[in-house]
Amino acid sequence: MAADISPDMLRRARSRATQLGVADLMEFADADITALPFQDNTFDLALTFNGLHCLPDPRAAVFELARVLKPGGILRGSTCVRGRGRRQDRFVTALQAAGFFGDTPRAGDVQRWLTDAGLEVSVARHSGSVELFEARHN
């Protein structure tokens, strides 16, 4: 299952799946990450890479991803964060001003949201302003 609110991203996903010969194994859904059209406890794995920082409410997205995970399911992802250095913060601020980034989380926010959503954080690393995370649904 590939879900995205952007028609362009879904088009790219379909194209890539076709190139890899797996398009017939995939489903594609036009979906808002803060209101996913899936039942609770649906997925074993949810991925969100380089997207949370683009959203107006990234915390809501984390909670929604946790909702659709099965018990024992894993959420993996990455996002840009503020608070990792002046140079990185200037980069994030410039992209926010240009309209590319939304309410970019601060360092530590994502780990707190994962825990608040009932997930157990197993990986929390950063490289510059990029935070990588993995958490398991309890």
TrEMBL record:
Keywords: Methyltransferase, Transferase, Ubiquinone. Residues 2-75 form the Methyltransferase type domain. The keyword Transferase applies. It comes from the Bacteria. SUPFAM superfamilies: S-adenosyl-L-methionine-dependent methyltransferases (SSF53335). GO terms for biological process: methylation. GO terms for molecular function: S-adenosylmethionine-dependent methyltransferase activity. This is Ubiquinone/menaquinone biosynthesis methyltransferase.
